[in-house]
Here is the input.
Amino acid sequence: MFAFISLDPDTMTPTNSCRDIRSYLWETKHDLTLHPITISILATIYIFIVIVGCTGNLLVVMSVVRFKALQSVRNMFIVSLSVSDLFVAIFSGSVTPISAFSKVWLFGAPLCRFLPLLQGTALSFSTLTLTAIAIDRYILICHPTSEPIRKNLAFKMIIFNNAIAIALSAPLFLKQELVKYSNFCGEFCTENWREDAHLRSIYGSMVFIIQFVFPLAIITFCYASISFKLRNGVFVRGSQKELMSEARRQLTQKRLRTNRMLIIMTVTFALSWLPAVGFNFLRDYSALPGFIADQDYLFGIISHCISMASTIVNPFLYGYCNEHFRAAFVTLWDSVKAACGMRRVSPGNNPACSQLLSTHFESTTRRSITTVPSSI
Here is the structure.
């Protein structure tokens, strides 16, 4: 999906000696990704993304696994997103920049095929999972009398989303190959559609529609409907008894905060991946603007770097917007400090920590929703 090899076949003539691709690109295109300053800046950014992305998403996974109070349907989808981001941060965040800077493939034929499959699958799986989260929220809030998504169904949806994502990305696996050019030193991992070159554009368009257009349309409808409902009425979980207006107000505000967090998460994901998806889409149709085509390596790695930022945003959103995730992060950090022999900080009177460890909280987080008219 992120192939940076774009050599002109007319320049590849059989010779007895090979030429360094880096020197060739510097002489012919003055490729800025060969400049030490560019490499230093981008390498620093990638190292930061990999470390923070792995740490943050690992915290999310460990929090949900450890605390039963966090094991809701929505958080099952969130964990699946975090696991996907972990794989992307580890593999894509290391292999892609190294290949972009070295210009040759150093990781063997199996990873040449596997990495594009992983990246394509992760992107498709993330958009489908974000869509599943939006649908889950939509059913709970806009159709409270309908049967909500249960954990067993959520698990099946996660497996189904993963299967669809793999199927969508399978052509990347099949068309990717490790090649040698007789007049350039080293091996190159690139897409090779051969006589089916015209199908590459069709495939790219189809994936763009399924990955972005349809999911974002569904997500927009769901969250727009939820926002309208929340701002025109009060929705509370629990018994059917009349509740105090202050309690209803607090619950509504909590729902609004959760809704804002999920909307921000979706918008951030879309904006971070848009440059990379747009770059590949335009390249498939040979429609890149001239100044971008002249520095396609540079703009390719920059767009990929921006997309990688999505792996670090979500854990910060969970910690900032969700008090229970925040409490779980604090508790896990205390455990790490205790394991290292440092003094453990007690959660004290923090209500979020107390509720997080409460079995009653887990039993009341997914009850039926009662709609109370806003006039009450």
Q: What stands out?
A: The CA atoms of residues 283 and 293 lie 9 Å apart.
